[in-house]
Structures are given as C-alpha cells and as structure tokens.
Task: structure prediction
Amino acid sequence: MYDVVIVGARCAGAPLAVMLARRGLRVCVLDRARFPSETPSTHVIQPCGVEILDELDVLDAVLAHGAVPLDRFTLVYEDVRIDASLDAVQFGRPGLCVRRVTLDALLVEAAAAAGADVRTGCRVTGVLADDTGRVAGVQTDNGPVRARLTVGADGRRSVVAASTGAAEYLATPPGRIPAWGYFAGVTDGEGRMRIGRRGDLAFLACPTDSGLYMAGIGIDVAKAGDFHADRARNFAAGLAHWPELADLLAGAQRQGPIRVMTDWHGYFRRSAGPGWVLVGDAGHFKDFTPAQGIADALRQAKTLAESICNGLDHGEADAHLRRWWQWRDHDAYAMYWLARDMGVAGPSTPLITAMMRQIAGSEAAAGQLLRVLNHELPPARLFTVARLARAAVGALRDQPRQLPATLREIVSTATREFLRAAARYGLDSRQGRSTMRRERFRRRRHLAVESAA
Result:
C-alpha cells in the first residue's frame, strides 16, 4: 500500500513525486512510456517554472544538456514589435526552452533518486474503488497498485479522469494547430524567445537544448487539411512569412520530422473527488500560444504537494484536494481566456493591433507583459479598461474605413468580457445582480474562486 500513486511521470507527475517522496511519503509513479520519449509541447519554461526546476535539483542537469537561458523576448504582432529583457532581479531566473525528450527523462530520474517507486512501460487501465466508492488505487496491465490517494497526471487523455467521470467545463475549440521542428546550424548568439503573429499565422521560436533551435508555426485549424497535404513545403512557406525568422534559419538543417498536434481543445475538468485528484493537463488545458503549460504543471505540482501532505497529516485529504482544485481554477481562469484570445484563428483585428501598439510604446507595459506570461501579474492589470479605450480610439483613427467592423469588435469584446466575469462570479448577465443562473452558469460550482482567493 502506497500513500500516493501518480499516473503520469512527465512535468506534473514526476515533480510531484519528488516533492512527496522528500517529505517521507510512500510514492509510486506509473507511466506507459519508456524514457526518454517525446510528447507534444511548446518546450518553453517561464522563469517561475525554472525556479521550481532548481528546487527539484534538476536545473543544473538541464543546463548541462545545453539549454540556453532565455533572457530576451521579442513579440511581433503584424507591424508592431515589442523587444524586452527579463530583469535579473525582478524575475530571478531566465526562461528556458527544453525538448521534452530531455526534460522528462531528467524529471523521471529525479523522482527515482528522491525515493519514489518509478515504473515506466506500465499501462494503467482504470482506477480501483473500495466498498464506499472511494478511489483506492489503480489497475495496471501488471496488476493492481493500491494507495491512499490517486493522482492523475496523465495528460489530456487522462485514464484517471475518464475512470472517475471527471466532467469538462468551460471548454473552448481550437483556433490553431501547432507545427514545429528542430534545426541544427542556427547561429543565434542571443537567448531570445520570439513570438509572432503575421497574417493568419502565429510563430514561436527560440534556442533549445543539445545545440538545436526550435521553430514553430500555428496554422488556422480550418486550413489544417491544406497544411497536411504537403507538410514540408507548407511548413517552410509558413516560416518564410516572418522574414526575421526566415533569415535566422537560412542555411540551417531541420533535424527529424515536422511535429504537429492536431487533436486538442481547451477545458477545465472536475479535478478532485474521494481519493483522487487531477494535476497538469489532466485537469486543465489551455491554448498553447502563451507557452505556459510546463511552468503551470510545475507550479500546480508544488501547491498540490503541500495540499496532499497537509491533508494526509490531518486526516482531511479530500477536503484539502477540493480546496486545491478551487485554487487551480482561480489561478488559471483569467489566463485561460487570454490564451484563447491570443490563439484565435485569422488575422489580427484593428483593436487588438492598436492595443499591442500601446504596449510597445511603453517600457513599463512591455515589462508587465513579461510578468503576465510569467503568471505573476493578472492579465487585467495589463489589458485595462483605459488601455482598451485608448486602443479603440487609435483603431478608429488609423483605419477609418473599418469603422463598422471596429465598432462591432469593441462591442463584442466588452460583451465577451462581461459574460466571462458573469460566468466566474455567478452574476445574471442581463441584470448584473448576484443571482445564480442554474442553467447558463451551472459551471460556477466548479469555479468557487472566491472561497479559494
């Protein structure tokens, strides 16, 4: 009998195992993969996540594999360019871009070194339950593994989520599909992360580990079929739409195939119940555009470890897990919608472009953008009502021929933000009162954010 069994040994499950094992808990970690192995990912780790890698004693090993510290940032949004540097004092750590084939193997090694029982190549088929219906472990191809608590850290297609009936809420469809590749021979003397949006394409590029450079594009989901018809040609053509990136990759050689993630959508899932909890992508997944997934998984693992230990120590594990779930939703809610807006399909709109132009014109605002991406500043502190109003005036002035479209966008943006706030706080969207609308906002039960704030 283990204290905790964790299904999934990647960037949520393995760090959680390290933290729990270091506190003296009996931990078993199961993963059907054998490491090193790949999984779809942006690879970027924001500074807050890099700090946790250091706490796990994994950072030095990551750097030894040639991961380049990212302390510079460029965002190109149509004709708007934002260049910023990560202040070493304010952020404490640089960002990183690490291939999952490298990162996950190091995390699995760290879990084993901390004392966890790590079993790779072990497929979990479902959960076990006691006579009361409480989850009491998992069933694997090799037999049962019993534990006081079961953690699903097994990603978007979580077996634990499916076995417990963890329902989705606030689901959003994909705007784009990511396609990326690794390049050798890129001469880039800077540790710079590049994010771009030009026309109907999005971009993400930065140096990664082992002397390679990662470059990716986001394709409008409606054009995915055309892209797949000739991936190599269309991928190269897509990269060429950002001349700066095309120049950087000139003469470089792509290593291996073009990777694509085609089947995804955004969601929250019910993430706690009697004897079980979901962490990382198993419980919540958002648009990949802001490149926060790995750091979010590490942050969630750290807070969940504290909740599990406190819950087991006081015999109130289920209550602590429910409160952790509430914290997770509160922590993720605003960024979930910003990521959705960043990744929406199609070219940029006049209003959004004008908003980005305002940010580009202020060094302080550019610094705030980095803090938003590092999950330390709420998006509302950057995308304020005043800034939105100034952007609206600028959009109407700069593109008067698009007056009707811009006005529709302004109204649509204001309405959308109000409805999101209503869904979060349970307000009646027509009357603005604190009346719970059982049908439209029934998912409010899953976002009890005020009690977790």
The radius of gyration is 22 Å. DSSP finds 17 helices and 20 strands in the chain.
